[in-house]
Each structure stands twice: as C-alpha cells, then as structure tokens.
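Problem: given the chain below (335 residues), write out its structure.
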Amino acid sequence: MLPFLAPTIFSQNRRSLSRRKIIKPKRLAKGDTVAVIAPASGVAPEEFEKALQNLDDLGFKTKVGKSARARNGFLAGTDKERLDDLHRAFGDAAVKAVWCVRGGYGAARFLPALNFTLIKKNPKIFIGYSDITALHTAIYQNTGLVTFHGPVAASTFSDYSKNHVINILMNPSAPYKIELAPENAALESNLFKTEIITAGKCRGELIGGNLSLLTALAGTPFALRNLKGKILFVEDVNEQPYRIDRMLTQLRQSVDLRQLAGIALGVFEGCNPRDATASQSLIEVLKDRLGDLGVPVIYGLSFGHIRDQFTLPVGIKAELDTGKATMTFLETGVI
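Solution.
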C-alpha cells in the first residue's frame, strides 16, 4: 500500500455504498476562477498553454494546480501530488470549478485515498472525460455530486463542443435536447454513423463514461452499482472489436445491465478491425453484447474521443430517443 493511503479510507468507502442524495454545483459565470489539474497523465508544455488559452477564451480565470505541469513517466506527478492538487482545488473557496487538463491514465490509482467528505462539503463543477471516468464514477456514487463528462481543458473546442459546455455549465435550461453534431454526421467513416441496436425511448438517471475505465473498476469498491432505471452512456477509442467484446462481457458479468433503462453509445473512434476478414465489426459486437438486454440501445451519439462532443452531467435525469437519435436532459446539472 502506498504510504499516503490510510486504512481508514477503505472503511470510509465501505460506509459510502448507500445511494446519496443528489448535489448540484453552482453554475459558472464569466470571470470565475477555474482550477486546472492533471489527475491522470500530463501534457506537453505547449498543450498546457493551449489548455489555459481554451479556458481564457471561455471567459474564465485559471489557477494551475501545483503539480499539474509535472511529468512522471505516463503520469503527471506522483499519486500524492496529483491527489493533493484535486483536494486543494475542491478546498479552495476561490475556485468555482475543477477542470482536468487531460485524461490518459492514472486517476484510479488514488481512488482509495479520495476525501469524499471534503468534496461533498465543497461542491463545485468537476469536468473531464476518458480516464477521468474513474473520478466521475467514484465521486458521484460516494457523494451524490453531479459531475460533468465533457471536454478536457486541452481539447479542441469546436463550436459544437463550446456551445454545449457553455449551455450546460453557465446557461442551464431544462428540458435541453441534444442532437447529433452536423460535423460528425457529415463524416464518411462508418464509426460516425448512428445505428439503432434496440429501438425505443426511455428516461433515467445518467451514469457512465469510458468503457475501459468502467470495466477496470469492476470488482473494486468504486465499481458501477445501483443501475436500476438508469441510462448508461459509454464510449471508447482505438480498441479492436475483440477488446470491446471482452470489456462488454466483463461488464455484463459484473453488473446486471438488464436493470438499465437504456444505453447510449458515443462514437468509438478508431475501433474498426485491422483485419476485417478475421473479425466481427464494431457494430456486430455491440449488437451481440447489448442487443439482448431488452432496453433501448443506440450507437453513434456525439460524445467520446472526438472533436465535436457534447457534455453529459453525471447523475441528472435524461431521456434517450433512439428513433430521433437525441438525448434530452430533463433537469439542469447546475444551480
């Protein structure tokens, strides 16, 4: 065990298994201070400057985490340094939101040491995607705080991505319908085409994120739980179909996906088979692993490791309509 992982943390997590009352953070306004942290992997100096410029362009002041620019191989600093940055950001009254500079790998390493009490007492916007899924899942399930699966600070903020993140974090309204990004629909790649796996319409609480991380959490105190009536959203990138099959199989065998209200799949960019003659296609795998659940399932909504992506508030109620390929938020993610 790493020296900073106190045994009491594990007992804290066991006490946190009951469902928490939902907590919504305050909305952002122009001029607010946003903490920029790197809880997983780091970025090159030029990418970090791009991230700060992105947030400046959105109208925010930035406060860089003490270790956010650090590099420790495939990690941004040590586990303790990265965790300390996250805790300082939540504990800093001047900080109105915590924005992850990128995903990569490493956030799950310090989950047992997360101070959920600190986070719950200081609710604020927390945003990122990819490896940040580990933090979204752990924080929401253990505190009830709505977090946001959306662009990392170093993302390319297209008009589509920017408009949605501003509407979700700064100018919230409900109901709020999200349609496919026209730029994605215009691409020739079959991975950007929608595919109805099981038709239908459903409502439920949003939970989910990156498939690799959701399966990596299986068997831990931070795994997905209490899925009854929820809408699971899932995306991944650069994984061969057999690996997608393996992860979905693990997910099926670790939780009861039949309890879900529905499943929204994003764009799985880079997941076409390298050798089509010796592999099922991505869609064939998704149909095989998810098509028998008896709930609405659609592939190709505009979120994931793509330029034009919308932001999903983890924990709010939403409606999924496979026929229209839309996601409608039935409540706001902020107050």
